[in-house]
Amino acid sequence: MTDLIVIAVLALAPLQSAWRSVLLLVCAVLLTSSADAQTPTNELKAQELAQRLHDECGKWGFPGAIATCVQEKEKAFGKELDQVYKKALTLAGTNKRLLRENQRNWLKYQESTCKFRGQLMKPEVGYCLLEMTLERLEELRGIVGCLSGKC
User: Fold this and answer.
1) Does domain 40-147 match CATH 1.20.1270?
2) Whole-prediction pTM value?
3) What is the distance between the alpha carbons of residues 106 and 101, in angstroms, rounded to a whole number?
């Protein structure tokens, strides 16, 4: 992929500077997206994944679209979080009450934390929800692993 982009850049030399700039920008985006594709999302830590997803949404270029994109990603991971939580509940046995209490407290913590961050920096609310959802998802996956005897 990189070799093809270098050849394309060399072919741009005779073009007018405006077109050359546009095509160089396209090449830069291709290089960036091919580099991003090299690390699978399931190998990233929650904060790294949240940042990558936020950066992907940033390609939309304006705040409304970025916020909508981040919100959609948070919603999708929220559904996955709910599934993992339900699986943890089925495995929790006598600790089911404690797990429920823990999840309720986490939801309150997430809400108050992101509300506070939102007062400081409005665009951060969506990112905060996404990041905290991914962190909790990672934590619950660990709990499911332990409850399955893989600690």
Assistant:
1) yes
2) 0.68
3) 9
